[in-house]
Design brief:
Blueprint (H helix, E strand, L loop, with lengths): L2 H12 L6 H19 L3 H16 L10 H22 L22 H9 L2 H12 L4 H8 L3 H22 L2
Helix pairs in contact: 1-2, 2-3, 2-4, 3-4, 5-8, 7-8
Length: 174
């Protein structure tokens, strides 16, 4: 994703030019969807996405486009999803549901089999690196600063991670 283009779109949105929102949405919806899908399911994902963009637009004047605005948007989505999860955990779960017959031909699949497999097979540090660099678009230098590690260490771990993911890709889509 082009950070320059994203920064340009945010400047235009700050100026009140709403015609740039569609392109902004197209560039960022994947990361927001991923953040929502990580914590909630079903129609809650759509609710989180909608609430995320409403919140982002309400605080856009305070967004620093020189920093990573996608990461800020991702954090909003994650927090909105966690809010829904907390609300659901406080509701009464003792409701009796009638047994439903599920059709034999119905097939359920994950939205991203590779990410599901990565979540299961990668270590916490490897998954963190994958999420920050690939999904959120951080530079390896920024991730190294987050982790407090030398850039050479992060670069080496990233190269090793890419090799692992290539093997997982074959397994996920075989």
């Amino acid at each position: 994703m082009g950070n320059l283009r994203l920064n340009y779109l945010i400047k235009k949105l700050k100026q009140g030019k709403s015609q740039y929102f569609d392109e902004f949405y197209a560039l960022t919806k994947g990361a927001v969807y991923y953040a929502a899908k990580t914590h909630v399911t079903g129609s809650d994902v759509e609710d989180v996405m909608q609430e995320t963009y409403v919140k982002f637009l309400s605080v856009i004047s305070g967004v620093d486009e020189k920093k990573n605005p996608l990461a800020f948007l991702y954090e909003i989505a994650k927090n909105k999803a966690l809010d829904i999860t907390r609300k659901r955990s406080r509701t009464d779960t003792d409701v009796i549901v009638e047994e439903m017959q599920i059709g034999v031909n119905e097939v359920y699949s994950h939205d991203s089999p590779l990410m599901e497999l990565c979540k299961k097979r990668l270590t916490e540090n490897e998954y963190f690196l994958l999420e920050k660099v690939v999904v959120l678009g951080y530079k390896q230098k920024e991730v190294a600063a987050m982790l407090g590690e030398p850039i050479s260490t992060v670069n080496h771990r990233y190269k090793t991670l890419v090799k692992k993911i290539k093997l997982l890709y074959k397994e996920a889509y075989a």
